[in-house]
Amino acid sequence: MVNEERVILMTKLAVYEKGPGKLNVTIGSYFRGDYIGFQLLKSIISVTLASGIILGVYIFYHFEDLMLDVYQMDLLEIGREMLRYYLIAIIAYCALTYMIYSYRHHKARKGLLNYNRNLRKLSQMINNEGEASSK
To answer: Is the distance from CB of 121 to CB of 9 less than 8 angstroms?
Structure first.
């Protein structure tokens, strides 16, 4: 005889494994600090590349004006201002990255805990049915 509750639980587990479970297992395999640190590193690299591209496009677009005024500009002050904007961008993106990936890690761990709880429940159902059929 088919145990309807067990079939429902097995279906729920299979759907989780095929959907969000794949990503959650990957995320859950990291410690929280390692996962967030890796994402922060990727964010810093991305901001650095984006800043370099933006600076290159700006220089390319204003090349003639820059060449005419290069001796009248305070290059040290321009460098400081660019560094200030770069650091502001890094801090903003790191804060945003930290919040997003902390939430994702927490959500993945919560989903995995629920998945493991359902697996134990399924195992207990199977063991109970096995004991009942052997009597």
So the answer is: yes
Question: What is the DSSP secondary-structure string of 51-99?
Answer: HHHHHHHHHHHTHHHHHHHTTTS-HHHHHHHHHHHHHHHHHHHHHHHHH
Model pTM?
Answer: 0.82
pLDDT for residue 2: 73
How far is residue 21's CA from residue 18's CA, in Å, rounded to a whole number? Answer: 6
Extents of the domains making up the chain = 4-129
How far, in Å, CA of 14 to CA of 3, rounded? 17
pLDDT in tens, 58-90: 999 999 999 999 889 999 999 999 999 999 999
Question: What's the CA gap between 12 and 65, in Å, rounded?
Answer: 64
